[in-house]
Amino acid sequence: MSLDANPSVHSTNLVGIPTGLLASSAFNEHPLKLRISGVRETNPALFSMLNDATSIEEAQEAFQNYMRAVFALDEAQRHSSGRRRFRASYLRLLAGWGFDANGPEGAVLKGWVESRFGLLPTFHKSPLGRYPSPAWMAYVEEKMSARFHNNSIHLQLDLLYEYCQWMLARFFSAGRHRPVLYRGVNDFAEHQLITRINKREAIARQNNLVSFSAARDVADQFGDTILEAQVPTAKIVFFNALLPGHVLRGEGEYLVIGGDYHVKLSYL
What does the pLDDT read at residue 2? Predict the structure, then answer.
């Protein structure tokens, strides 16, 4: 398994389109709607509550209440001994990603993208390259950590993605199916340039899960090369306006499913 001209993908996924297509720049230019198989059908109460919401705030409250009830995420949940019980939570994973996308929480999130969308990660602490390797083994160990694989964590992330897609369609996308987002980089170890179109444009392979920003001046703070991409809403997993407060650390930060993107390059 090596990083070459073809995206690194699994042969199967849970979204019903070929993974090679999903990973391609062609998908981003002509996106299709994505649904994780069975999630909406097996959680009808959540989407009934969302459909009854008349505002962003009501939808946020409905989602949070549902997740607390189904996954017992209330901090007051304790063992009968009185000790606090650790429950894996999508909120903990998002907070961990905001602190370090290459930490254990980031590995779990990248592993979820593998299992649902079929895209393999290309970077975790270092380029993953050919399998097996020490870098791959370290990633696999972190993504399978028992600390985070309880409380149906992948189902929590499935619901987060489907909630995100519902909110984009209902309140946020306003007919924009490919918002322009930005990412600042200092090198291309994690964002390999697959094809140079010209000095200012390229096809860049993004990690299977990657952060972008809606604000160019925020992206400027993270690198002296700015990647500008039109990101299909179907590839957006999370953004801060989905929930009250700022779950991720960056203003205007988006969590985006990766693959090959046609990007514009600009330099500070």
Answer: 35
pLDDT in tens, 148-192: 888 999 999 999 999 999 999 999 876 678 899 999 988 776 778
Do residues 260 and 203 make contact, with C-beta atoms less than 8 angstroms apart?
Answer: yes
Same domain for 199 and 158? no
Task: Kindly report the pTM of this predicted structure.
Answer: 0.92
Query: Which range marks the domain in which residue 193 is found?
Result: 180-267
Triad 201, 202, 207: Cα angle to 5° = 135
Which residue matches tokens 């703070």?
221
Provide the number of structural domains found in the chain: 2
Neighbouring CB atoms inside 10 A of 201's CB total: 14
**Tens digit of pLDDT for each residue in 74-88?**
754 444 445 556 689
Instruction: Judge whether 113 and 161 are in contact, CB under 8 Å.
Output: no
State the sign of the Cα–Cα–Cα–Cα dihedral 118, 124, 129, 135: negative
Q: At what angle do helices 153-167 and 44-52 cross, to 10 degrees?
A: 30
Q: Do residues 75 and 135 both lie within one domain?
A: yes
In a domain, 39, yes or no: yes
Residue 21 or 4, more confident: 21
**Residue 57 to residue 62: CA distance in whole angstroms:** 9
* Tokens read off for 116: 């649902």
Is the Cβ–Cβ distance between 13 and 116 less than 8 Å? yes
DSSP 185-204: ES-SSSSEEEEEEETTEEEE
